[in-house]
From TrEMBL:
UniProt-listed PROSITE patterns: SULFATASE_1, SULFATASE_2
GO-annotated molecular function: arylsulfatase activity; metal ion binding; N-acetylgalactosamine-6-sulfatase activity
Domain Sulfatase N-terminal: 27-352
Protein name per its UniProtKB record: N-acetylgalactosamine-6-sulfatase
Provenance organism: Mastacembelus armatus
Family, similarity comment: Belongs to the sulfatase family.
Primary enzyme class: hydrolase
Entry-annotated residues carrying 3-oxoalanine (Cys): 75
InterPro entries: Alkaline_phosphatase_core_sf, GALNS, Sulfatase, Sulfatase_CS, Sulfatase_N
Free-text cofactor note: Binds 1 Ca(2+) ion per subunit.
Length: 513
């Protein structure tokens, strides 16, 4: 079997899902989405410290994806893409306030996931799945945007990043939720010591995940667990047991604890005897944040730049699929795949057809769907298509790392990796003569190919078709307002944690990157 054409479950040992009888229980689904973890952070991808034994074992027991991508080089849009199966420019998780700007959901954002979108847990309900998110949501923090309003049955985690601490006067600390009500706030009831990096949050998230798996298995209900731990996002944290253990410093400590947690979850599946009926996928929301490295940022391996950019380091992710008895051990798939494929593939595993009233960007990677060749990878930054990959070739239609102003103020998304004419600090358009790299020979995007007409003749029709079929969603990330911050989340009355809501004063959000 050629690894170049290997689809996700091509080594499946049972009958195809489409042929299974109706009384067969659909598989449980676990998606583990890390935060700012880079392609080069795993031992199986060459990290010299070899401090991810559980993830490396997961890859040895399953399938590794060296060519797996996110849908955006920033957290919120990539998460929206995973849960909707659609590019952020379609599902509304982008901004039109400025050209080619990344945007996300800080607590002053007015918008959130559009009510017109259909999320994965909503679809899975058709087959009786119980769904839980553990960890970071990041698709809007106002009541109508929260997980239980968008298909999830349970939630333990936070709506925003764990930035802080704040004084609760000019800006409130971020709340932690149990289902629809807050339990407390970061830096208050849920401690993160920014000086030492100590926090028990990953252990809490692990226990929440294990408890959910136990309960649904006992009830004999199919489940979807979306485990979105965020310890590798600055400020990085780890519990006392893991602090100081890594050769890589505090960031490595966080990775080691996440690796341990993955091992515990997989062990739980074995102990319950449900490993053969549980599909698990591990990946990250975007590339490592090199601006925080090395103390609080990871590694993107051989790839150029990192988070916030549409170079390979910003969007190529570590990815592992695991399903004993269904995925052949130790396999590697070099097919191009992306986080939106998890939406469509999860539905296929559950025996559910994807929505037919909208364009879906994710493909079904199971063998029941004939593989017709390379799917393209579209690299968006805000409202602009920056680059396209087809096969081994990547064509840049726009290049930009960040502005000269930001760069001179010490914000550098490509430290030590400046490539003249490529990692530009002004937005450069190359539409008439794209910059093209062969990523097999040049994964670091340093040497543009010179003879490119044949390549362009293959990529150009793909780009033209994509743009002709593109109907952008209403942008959700344009407006900000201090009054919509987490002043008085549901449940704050019971805890005495409600804060005074200031007067509304909306403005257009400023997105510098």
């Amino acid at each position: 079997m050629s690894p170049l054409t290997l689809t996700l479950l091509s080594a499946i040992t049972c009958c195809s899902l489409a042929e299974q009888s109706s009384n067969v229980s659909p598989p449980n689904i676990i998606i583990m989405l890390m935060d700012d973890m880079g392609w080069g952070d795993l031992g199986v991808f060459g990290q010299p410290s070899k401090e991810t034994p559980n993830l490396d074992a997961m890859a040895a027991q399953g399938m590794l994806f060296p060519d797996f991508y996110t849908a955006n080089p920033l957290c919120s849009p990539s998460r929206a893409a995973l849960l909707t199966g659609r590019l952020p420019v379609r599902n509304g998780f982008y901004t039109t306030n400025a050209h080619a700007r990344n945007a996300y959901t800080p607590q002053e954002i007015v918008g959130g996931i559009s009510q017109d979108e259909i999320l994965l847990p909503q679809m899975l309900k058709k087959k009786g799945y119980v769904s839980k998110i553990v960890g970071k949501w990041h698709l809007g923090h106002r009541p109508q945007y929260l997980p239980l309003e968008n298909g999830f049955d349970e939630w333990f985690g936070a709506p925003n990043c764990h930035f802080g601490p704040y004084n609760n006067s000019n800006r409130p600390n971020i709340p932690m939720y149990n289902d629809s009500e807050m339990l407390g706030r970061y830096y208050e009831e849920f401690k993160i010591d920014k000086k030492t990096g100590e926090s028990n949050l990953t252990q809490i998230y692990l226990l929440e995940g294990l408890d959910f798996i136990n309960r649904q298995t006992e009830a004999q209900r199919p489940f979807f667990l979306y485990w979105a731990a965020d310890a590798t996002h600055a400020p990085v944290y780890a519990s006392k047991r893991f602090l100081g253990k890594s050769q890589r410093g505090r960031y490595g400590d966080a990775v080691m604890e996440l690796d341990y947690s993955v091992g515990q979850i997989l062990s739980k599946l074995y102990s319950l005897g449900i490993e053969n009926n549980t599909f698990v996928f591990f990946t990250s929301d975007n590339g490592a944040a090199l601006i925080s490295a090395p103390d609080e940022g990871g590694s993107n391996g051989p790839f150029l730049c990192g988070k916030q950019t549409t170079f390979e380091g910003g969007m190529r992710e570590p990815a592992i699929a695991w399903w004993p008895g269904h995925i052949e051990e130790g396999t590697v798939s070099f097919q191009l795949a992306n986080v939106m494929d998890l939406f469509t593939t999860s539905l296929a595993l559950a025996g559910i057809s994807p929505p037919d009233d909208r364009i879906m960007d994710g493909l079904d990677l199971t063998p029941s769907t004939p593989w017709t060749g390379h799917q393209p990878i579209f690299y968006y930054r805000g409202n602009e298509l920056m680059a396209v990959r087809l096969g081994q070739y990547k064509a840049h239609y726009w290049t930009w790392s960040n502005s000269w102003m930001e760069f001179k103020n010490g914000i550098n998304f490509c430290p030590g990796q400046e490539v003249p004419g490529v990692t530009t600090h002004t937005q450069k358009e190359h539409t008439l003569q794209p910059i093209i790299f062969h990523l097999g020979r040049d994964p670091g995007e340093k040497f543009p190919i010179r003879s490119y007409l044949d390549v362009l003749s293959r990529i150009s029709p793909v780009v033209e078709q994509h743009k002709n079929n593109l109907v952008p969603g209403l942008p959700q990330l344009n407006m900000c307002d201090v009054a919509v911050m987490n002043w008085a989340p549901a449940g704050c009355e019971k805890l005495g944690k409600c804060l005074k809501v200031p007067k509304s004063d909306p403005w257009k959000c400023d997105w510098p990157h």
